Amino acid sequence: MTYTVHEIFLTAQGEGANLGRTAVFIRFAGCNLWSGREEDRATAVCRFCDTEFRGGAKHDVASLVAAAAALWPAGTGGRFAVVTGGEPLLQLDAPLLAALRAAGFTVAIETNGTLALPAPIDWVCVSPKAGAPLALDRADELKLVYPQAGMDPADWRDFPAAQRWLSPMDGPEIVANTAAAAEYCRRHPEWRLNIQAHKTWGVR
């Protein structure tokens, strides 16, 4: 199996339950809800994505795991990898998961949830998108972009997730969207306000 990886880098997780945790991010190329081209945004299922995920380097299992391991600080344990995209489940498979674990990594995934997991994953963060059928029936984290047309947080009250986050939609209305998300969380304390802290920190 050959994987197309848009980028791989060491950073601090900027949002959600693992906020601030050092992580190797493995960002796979490609998504099933948007091509990544601006000319296609208006007709995409997800029209508000703010991530670049087109193109990248080719890797096999060995070279990808070696690249991830090389980024982790030498002589330290607790290796943690976040596989993301685009949509990582278009490419992530059981052999790569097994190889990452064999190299000492705990593996987390950030997914839109439209595709099934190829094998158990240590930490699953699912961010459903309106108009995209969900293939996953549970997650460690449920993260909804808010406000999102066609996506009411109340519709997810029975979805099994240990943590529930509202992530204000980025863009020109970010201040108003953050206020709206914060107010929703105040009225529905089962939800937590998710802020993309890495953008404030100035890191990827």
Account of the 3D structure:
The structure is a single chain. The chain has 204 residues and is an alpha/beta fold. It has one domain: Aldolase class I (TIM Barrel, Alpha-Beta Barrel), CATH 3.20.20. Helix content is 19%, strand content 26%. Strands 3-1-2-4-5-6-7-8-9 form a nine-stranded mixed β-sheet. Helix 3 links the parallel strand 8 and strand 9. Helix 1 runs parallel beside helix 2. It is globular. The two termini are 28 Å apart. The model has no long low-confidence stretch (mean pLDDT 96).
Percentage of residues assigned to helices: 10-25%
Q: Termini separation (Å)?
A: 28 Å
Structurally, the number of domains stands at 1
Shape: globular
Please list the strands of the largest sheet in the order they lie side by side. 3-1-2-4-5-6-7-8-9
Known CATH architecture? Alpha-Beta Barrel
For the largest beta-sheet, the strand count, sense and barrel status come to:
9 strands, mixed
Report the radius of gyration as a whole number of Å.
Answer: 17 Å
Say which CATH homologous superfamily is assigned.
Aldolase class I
CATH class: Alpha Beta
Strand content: 25-35%
